[in-house]
Design goal:
- The complex is a heterotrimer of chains A (393), B (101) and C (191).
- Chain A is an alpha/beta fold and 393 residues long.
- Chain A is 42% helix and 19% strand.
- Chain A has twelve helices and 15 strands.
- In chain A, helix 1 runs parallel beside helix 2, helix 9 packs across helix 12 and helix 10 packs across helix 11.
- The radius of gyration of chain A is 21 Å and the shape is globular.
- Chain B is mostly loops.
- Chain B has a single domain, classed as Alpha-Beta Plaits, CATH 3.30.70.20.
- Chain B has a two-stranded antiparallel sheet with strand order 1-4. In chain B, strands 2-3 form a two-stranded antiparallel ribbon.
- The relative contact order of chain B is 0.23.
- The model of chain B has no long low-confidence stretch (mean pLDDT 92).
- Classes of the chains: A alpha/beta (393), B little secondary structure (101), C alpha/beta (191).
- Chains A and C meet through strand 8 and helix 9 of A and helix 1 and strand 2 of C.
- Strand 8 of chain A pairs antiparallel with strand 2 of chain C, so a sheet runs across the interface.
Chain lengths: 393, 101, 191
């Protein structure tokens, strides 16, 4: 039975964490994810979970403690945002290369500077090549559902990699909205007991974690790690299928919204996708063939599937909520264009940078992007292919 | 399932390498013949030794075995011939053979 | 006015509880079975600085995650904001403005840049002082928007608030009673 509730995105994640009842949470608070450890530590204090909560002195320590705990055999997690994730950088790679299935609740916030506390994806996009699985959420429901599914993906024997569940800072993290929760028992059964094959606190089987690998081993180790990340794609689909049976809510690698016959497609991540769906409906009502592809799984990047989903689009907008300072495209733009190229597809792709530092994304601003795409198609002139949306000129 | 660490060699394929290079075994550094790297060799002169055991903790490779409070012959499978033991010995009970294995 | 989607914008100052009021409104309207959204527009957290918060209320699932530029209702928690903020910006003439003030509507209208829609006033300071002995404008303003917008009946609103306050302030019956009194007075007085 699902429970009708109203929660903010942060409350939703903290609720999923309570229902999972992990072994260890280490955390250092940072806006806009502060509420997650704040709420969760109250669950610990109230005895609603038996998690060991470790208040640490920095995010580097938060991730290091999670790594130690996970290696010891404890199901571990943390939460952070922005500069907090940046401070974890070094050890993010350690968590992934040591194949530790840690879950991280990331509340996306821009990286300084200029210093700003609002949403964009520069934090998680900067960490996209650290070897973590990355899943993005549109709203509080998705971030809850994704967190419930997180350990099933991360801990799968063919994967065993850390997982980052992302949501947009303030826009969904602080917004109270309707949500359907699963019962505690249902989540507990779905996630299951954590029984690692090997762990440091197993006195019967000595173990060394994270040994030095000389050049003769390092490349083989990375290749094996890549294979695990690739496996995460199928596992994500399998887990989503089981989750749908439990909750009635369906998830894939990405969501296609009125895309199948769309001439003009937008590829987008996070909360702005919901706003864009309203824009799509309005334009469809006017007879415009527009559609949307919302990324859920960004790492591993489902390139072949995305190229196939976009094969009928004539003009595509890739929406990047970060500036990656390579002077030609954003990270999503790079991935999508590379996927299209590999599939020998050559549509016009316009890469937009939008929503930096919390710049509001409206139905009107998204509509203007579709208007650009239609104009490009009609005039056969792409113009500038790397653009900023809602920028004062 | 513990794996046979002796199978992890520099010819291993990426498909067989352990997850995260984990080593599911203890004490396996003993299998590594670091004595092979030695160019100078310490010689233990037992009659000069007073069994003060100062040489034991300073050995970086734990190559001076102790039994019943007495040190024994060097473990030449692991001794790299660094000479710290000879330097620290107050009684001249360790001398270095230079350029000899 | 009952529409598919009701959009509300709150203007207040940091520390006055406008954000809390928006979240409380989402909470209480949720109990009627509707879809709700309550969210603040965050900036640096500074006591006294103008802040904005928003609500969307709908019978259908709400997907939009932008701020609200054309609200049906605007709630002004602090009338000194008229100098700093264009509170009626985008407010539709079929909607309404609700102002916390001891002054009458005609005086308030001078500040509204020719806004032609309805204006409602409530003296939240007096009501709060009478009911709680302290100045917490958010309970009266919450009752005022419920009354003016008609999103739910007075009875349902009061019974939901009673439950929610009893839950929140289990050990402080005087706070529950004070807040309930403020809500009841507002429902009677808002004009």
């Amino acid at each position: 039975m699902s429970i009708r509730e109203r929660l903010s995105g942060n409350e939703a994640v903290a609720t999923a964490m309570r229902q999972i009842n992990p072994d260890v949470m280490s955390a250092f608070p940072i806006t806009p994810s502060t509420e997650i450890p704040h709420i969760f530590s109250s669950f610990v204090a109230n005895g609603q979970v038996d998690t060991e909560f470790i208040p640490v002195e920095s995010e580097h320590s938060a991730m290091s403690a999670a790594i130690g705990a996970e290696a010891a055999g404890a199901r571990s997690l943390t939460a952070t945002s922005s500069c907090g994730l940046a401070l974890m950088w070094e050890v993010l790679y350690v968590a992934a290369s040591n194949r530790l299935a840690i879950a991280l609740a990331l509340v996306n916030r821009t990286l300084s500077g200029p210093i700003n506390i609002n949403c964009d994806h520069s934090d998680s996009m900067g960490a996209r090549d650290s070897g973590w699985i990355q899943i993005y959420s549109e709203n509080n429901q998705e971030v809850y559902d994704n967190f419930v599914q997180a350990y099933r993906i991360a801990e799968h024997p063919s994967v065993r990699l850390p997982i980052m569940i992302c949501q947009d800072g303030f826009i969904t993290s602080a917004a109270v909205e309707n949500i359907e929760l699963l019962e505690d028992r249902e989540v507990k059964e779905f996630v299951g007991e954590y029984c690692p094959d090997s762990y440091l606190l197993n006195s019967k089987q000595p173990l060394a974690v994270g040994p030095y690998a000389v050049s003769a081993y390092c490349m083989e180790a990375k290749r094996a790690q890549l294979e695990a990340l690739k496996n995460a794609k199928q596992v994500t689909l399998d887990v989503a299928k089981e989750f749908a049976a439990l909750s009635g809510r369906e998830y894939g690698l990405f969501e296609e919204y009125r895309l199948a016959d769309a001439d003009y497609a937008m590829v987008i991540i996070g909360s702005a996708a919901g706003t864009a769906k309203d824009a799509v409906d309005q334009l469809r009502a006017e007879g415009k063939k527009v559609g949307l592809l919302k990324i859920r799984l960004f790492r591993p990047f489902p390139g072949e599937e995305i190229a196939a989903a976009l094969q009928n689009a004539r003009v595509i907008a890739c929406m990047d909520r970060t500036e990656s300072f390579n002077a030609q495209c954003g990270p999503l733009g790079a991935e999508v264009k590379s996927a299209l190229f590999n599939a020998r597809l050559m549509p016009v792709v316009i890469n937009y940078v939008y929503g930096l530092g919390g710049r509001d994304v409206t139905v009107e601003s998204i509509t203007s992007v579709y208007a650009d795409l239609i104009k490009i198609d009609q005039t056969n002139d792409a113009g500038e292919i790397y653009r900023y949306l809602s920028l004062r000129e | 399932m513990a794996i046979d660490v002796s199978k992890i060699t520099e010819t291993i394929s990426w498909k067989d390498i352990t997850e995260g290079c984990k080593i599911e075994a203890a004490g396996n550094s003993r299998m590594f013949n670091t004595g092979d790297w030695r160019v100078n060799t310490p010689v233990f002169i037992e009659e000069k030794c007073e069994q003060c055991l100062l040489c034991v903790p300073v050995c970086p490779d734990s190559s001076i075995p102790v039994d019943n409070y007495k040190r024994g012959e060097f473990d030449f499978m692991h001794c790299k011939g660094c000479g710290i033991c000879a330097k620290v010995c107050p009684f001249g009970a360790i001398v270095m053979k230079m350029g000899e294995r | 006015m009952v529409k598919d989607l009701i959009q509300i914008r709150w203007h207040g100052r940091g520390g006055q509880g406008a954000k809390t009021a928006a979240l409380l409104l989402a909470d209480v309207v949720f109990s009627t079975g509707k879809y709700v959204q309550g969210f603040p527009e965050y900036g640096p957290e500074r006591m006294g600085a103008p802040i904005t918060a928003y609500n969307r209320i709908s019978d259908k699932k709400i997907r939009v995650h932008s701020n609200i530029y054309e609200p049906d209702y605007v709630v002004v928690v602090d009338e000194t904001l008229f100098d700093a903020v264009d509170v009626t910006k985008g407010l539709c003439n079929e909607g309404a403005l609700i102002v916390n003030t001891a002054r009458n509507k005609e005086e308030i209208k001078k500040y509204l840049n020719g806004y032609k829609g309805q204006v409602h006033t409530i003296d939240a300071r007096r009501i709060s002082m009478e009911s709680l002995g302290k100045y917490f404008p958010n309970s009266p303003m919450l009752a005022a928007i419920v009354k003016v917008s008609g999103v739910m009946s007075d009875e349902t609103f009061l019974s939901e608030m009673q439950q929610s306050l009893e839950h929140k302030f289990a050990g402080k019956p005087e706070v529950v009673e004070g807040n309930m009194k403020a809500l009841r007075l507002t429902l009677q007085e808002v004009s």
